[in-house]
Structures are given as C-alpha cells and as structure tokens.
Amino acid sequence: MLKMNKTDFSDKELTISAGITVASSILSIIGGILIIWSYSRITETQNRVRDLLVALTIADICIAFGNGVGGVQFYYLDLKQSLSSNAVCVGQSFITTTFSISSFLWILSIAVYLFRCVWIQEDPLLTRKTMIVIHVIIWGIPGVITLTAYICDKLGNGTYSINGVWCWLKVPVDTKWGLFWMLVTGKGWEVITYVVIAILYMMMKVKTYRQGRRFNRNVLQWNQISNELRREDEIYCISCLIIYCLRMWGIIRLGLGLVRTDIPFNSYCYDHGIKQALLYLHSYGDSAQAFWNFILFCLCDKTVRTHVESAFCRRKLNRLGENIKQNNERTSFL
Question: Which of 2, 145, 183, 292 could hold 188 in an S-S bridge, CB 3.0 to 4.6 Å?
Fold first, then answer.
C-alpha cells in the first residue's frame, strides 16, 4: 500500500508528476525557441498569422518555464514544505497564471484573424499601431488579473488536487470564493477559448467546403480564399485539436473536484487510478503546447522543412568544397 497524505497522492506519484512536468517543460522551451528561430530566419513564413503564433509561443515558453520551476522546486523540498507558499512558489504562480491567460487570448486572436480571412473573406489590415494595441491588451489584462489575485493573497499552493506540482492558487475549490478565483485566473478563459475556437474552426471548414462546391472542387485551400494566408496555415485546425488533447485534463480534474467534494481527499477510494492518470496527463499537457506547436509549425510545415534541408545540404557542400580545396593545396605543395 502506498503511503498517502492529505494531497490524495503518494510522495512517489507526486515525484513522477514533477519529473513529467520538468521533461515536458524542457521540450517546450526548446521547441518554442526553434519556432522563434524559424520565424526570424525564413522570410517565406513571415505573415501576420505567424506573428501571432510567435507571441503565443513566448507565452507558452513562459508557462513551461514556470511549471518547470515548480517541478524542480518540488524535488528540493519535502512534501510538507512544498505545500507551503514560499516566495518562489508565489513568483512562479504569478508567471504561470499571467502567461496562461495570455496564451488563451493569443489562441483566440489567431482564431478570430483566420475567421475573418476565411469566412468573411476580409484581409484584416493589422498595422503596427494596431498590433501594439493588441499586445498591450493581451499582455496587460492577464497582468492586472494576476496582480489583483496577488494583492488579495490568493496565489500560492494548494493540495495538488486541481493542479500539478506547480503552484497556482492556495484557495480550495470547494470554498465560497475558490471556484470564482479559479475561473478568473485561468479556467474560465480556458473554457471560453475551447468553445469559441471550436465554433470558429468548424465554420471555417464549412466555408471552405461550400466554396469548393461552388467552384466544382472538393475543398478550397485557405490560401486560395485569402492572399494573407499560406497553404500551411491550415495546420491551425489541427493545433486546435492538439490544444484540447493537451489542456482538457485540468478542466476534467476541476470538474471531478467539484462533483466529488463529498469524498475525503485522504481516502484511497476506488477511482484513485483515474485521478493518478489525470494527474500525469495534466502534468504533461499544461507544459507541452510549445513543443507540439513546434512539431506542427516547423516539422509539418513544408516551407520550414525545405529551408532546413537546403541549409543542411549547403553546409555539407561547403564542407566538401573546403576538403577538396585543402586536398588540392596539399597535392600542389607536394
């Protein structure tokens, strides 16, 4: 029998969760950096949608960094200390909460932009001034919300029953204001994002199908509808599904926490295996978005792959040419 504690998870289970969190965070930070690198080096990908993706990637990198810090901190503290809300815990909670809300707002902004291009068939003229305003709003609103939560002394650590080993809120979900703060500082924005992007992307698929039928084709590609889009921008539809698969585990755990409040958290009840699996999936998914975006928008993007392959071939040819030149110099010397 595993030794249980008031967190409803054993020390071993939480240690595994911390390891998953740290590994997922490292992969996302690396993947996010490569997305930004590909954007800066490959001019063919530099459209407005990719601008928004880079902003989203920055938010996801910060989320991964914050969650990674939470996982590392767990390793250096025993369970009793890790449940306390120290300065590192509160600072990490401030980072992850702020950038989590920003991440959802950037996802919404990308979906709305694509919707205007595909459904309304209007190319939004996002000038530099407009982009500055968008950045101020999307970075500013989460900052104000999180600062308010900090002033109200809500940031910290709970019992790992809703989040992973990283810090978020120290307000239990079953208290009077617990659910309110959880919705305001993340979960509410998450649910809104899920609903809105599902509706918008389904409408865009319907639009492309109807346009294809109109021109006697099966489905039109987005770049055939809007000059502002690339063919590879349709990958954003797949990224929508990836977001669901990665982030829905936190919502499920929150729902279970609301409906199962009658079950003591220190009891090893029959559904503990499900709770354990959800903890591991949550620990991986909340930090993994930048890594999967790297797979979709770098590895699955033909333009990016072609550029990387060409650069690799050029490097090999340059090395081969240098070797031939050195051999010729040696031969002529002899």
Answer: 183
